[in-house]
Amino acid sequence: MAISSLTNVGVATNDTNASSSSSASQLAQNFDTFLTLLTTQLKNQDPTSPMESDKFTDQLSQFAQVEQGIQSNKNLENLLAMQSQQRQLSALSYVGAQIEAVGDTNWLAEGGELQYKYNVSPEVPRLQLQVQDQDGKTIYSEELTDVSGLQSFTWDGKNNNGVAQDAGAYTLVLNPMAANGDTFKDEEGNPASMAIGIIGNVDSVDIDDSDIYLRIGDVAVPFSTLTNVKLGANSTDTETGTDDSPGSDEQDAAA
């Protein structure tokens, strides 16, 4: 079931502040205990050898420093929570946008078509391309011989007999092949490297405590996998991948 994009915006704030609240509560208990012990000690101290005031003053100062540290941590946590909320709310602007993302599964609407991008090792001579349904059944397949460089593939939503398929999630599967039809392996016996990306329009946004998901039909696309966004017909493309981001090499290849 889809998570409401608005209901859960504030969830992270409560969870984030839990650590500081617990630390503050523990400090308050320790401070009360300290004051009780100090008062008892002052009442029962030896009049001929009273406690030096600088000792408990130092202890009071230490408590104050700890309290200030906890408050600073709480302020930082609130700041991070506000940034997270802002990021979540900004994600709502992606509804209706066309996105490209790393992934192999896309959502086919009734009577629609699907768009993919892929990139395989340049030394691969042949490629078997398959479209599979949610049960792993191959719905459409073809063999290609020109597979060098970044490629685009648009599936019209029909099987090899020309019969239109039902709406649903469909996965693009690539099988690199050698010239003789066997599974391709390089000179060292390693399989071909490849990357797949999907293209689609965002229907809604799901937000939870761990990530933001842009939904294309019933396919949830993690926000972190985006490689390109087109917010409107008159807007320019926005590249979301960076060289320092995790998986950026794969994203660049899929884009």
Task: Kindly summarize this structure in a few lines.
The chain is an alpha+beta fold. The protein contains 3 helices and 13 strands.
Structure in words:
Helix content is 31%, strand content 29%. The chain is α+β, with helices and mostly antiparallel strands. The chain has 2 domains: 11-94; 98-254, Immunoglobulin-like, CATH 2.60.40.4070. The protein has a 6-stranded antiparallel beta sheet. Helix 1 (11-43) packs antiparallel against helix 2. The chain is elongated, with a radius of gyration of 30 Å. Mean pLDDT is 77; it is low at 1-16 and 242-255.
What's the topology here?
Blueprint: H1 11-43, H2 53-91, E1 98-102, E2 105-108, E3 114-120, E4 126-132, E5 138-144, E6 151-155, E7 168-177, E8 194-201, E9 204-207, E10 212-216, E11 219-222, E12 226-230, E13 238-239, H3 248-254
Antiparallel strand pairs: 1-8, 1-12, 2-7, 3-6, 3-8, 4-5, 4-7, 9-10, 10-11, 12-13
Helix pairs in contact: 1-2
